[in-house]
Amino acid sequence: MQDKKTKLSKAILDMKFMKKTKERVQKEEEDAEGQTMYANEITEEMRKSGNIVFMETSICSCKSLMEGRLSFGGMNPDIENYMAIKYSPKLEEIEKQMGTDVSDAEMAKGYSTLVNTMAKKFTDKKKRHVNS
Amino acid sequence: MTIKPGDFVMPGDILHDLDNIKGITLIGPGLRQNTEPNSLIVSRAGFLCHKPANIYWIETAHKRYIPKKGDLVVGIVVKKSGDTLKVDIGGAELASLSLLAFEGATKKQKPDLLVGDAVYAKLLSAHREMEPELVCIDKYYKAGNLGPLSSDGFIITVLPSLVYRLLNIEHPLLRSLGKKFPFEIAIGMNGKIWFNSKSVKDTVTLMNCLFAAEQQSDKDIYELCKQ
Known about the structure:
The complex is a heterodimer.
Chain A: H1 10-13, H2 19-39, H3 44-49, E1 53-56, H4 59-62, E2 69-72, H5 77-122, H6 125-131
Chain B: E1 8-9, E2 14-15, E3 24-27, E4 31-33, E5 40-42, E6 46-51, E7 55-59, E8 72-81, E9 84-88, E10 95-98, E11 118-125, E12 133-135, E13 147-149, E14 154-157, H1 160-166, H2 173-180, E15 183-187, E16 192-197, H3 200-215, H4 218-226
Parallel strand pairs in B: 3-7, 10-12
Antiparallel strand pairs in B: 1-6, 2-5, 4-5, 6-7, 8-9, 8-11, 9-10, 11-12, 11-13, 14-16, 15-16
């Protein structure tokens, strides 16, 4: 294979107009060298499964933290404008979710009042008058 | 024995069977790539956390700040030399901040920053072997919410755990304080918090609240804020 590929001689590569080609040839050589160097370290298993690539991130993205520059009550209008874009939509989303969470407790409360009203229905009319 | 998310782990423990998306797994603080492929080694004692689909990190009670790329921090200028500032961000080394890394800054027109001023900046690079580098612009050369902080404000240092709690958008403390009096705040991931309000009384109240919150559990704070 290598014999078929024509190789440019060093003298030609050193010529001024061959600068780009020279760079390319050098890169190819380096790549080939690197591949042979690491070829024996790559196991069959690695080739089969493909490795997990680990990327390091900061804890901000792990815990999806917001940006810490905030302003409340009109102290810094610039920051509040900025917050309107980034902070408020997220907050609304969270509040919606929280709203559903709270409704569970409210549901329980509602049920207990319902029980009372139902109980009222089954009490005697005289007693109901006394109660109310 | 396999380690599940939520377990207490010690340095040297090895994690296998990690979730990934297209072969990519994100790791946060406390984890390091193991020499064996497709596994991680724990480098800090703490609780293993996992966020679906592919994020893992260790949650620990630590006090020291380790600079990490992309963190938003509050720093204090400690030295000014030529075009660069040296900024104390609480890490092992001072961070460098170029005067040209501000919005609209040119060689002739640089921002007027003095030793002792506070800045809210983003960590552009943070390597173990190099000094951290800060910038006050985003990738579109806009300042956004970064930049110098007014010298009227006040800076305190709190535990990183409080910072993580405050920056959780569900946390109600800052919002409920915001209903009581106007203030602005810059919370750095490095545990430094800068804040400013219209009166000294409010500033002191805010400081006391933050110090108290450091000691209190989230549950108590939620209860108090509901009132």
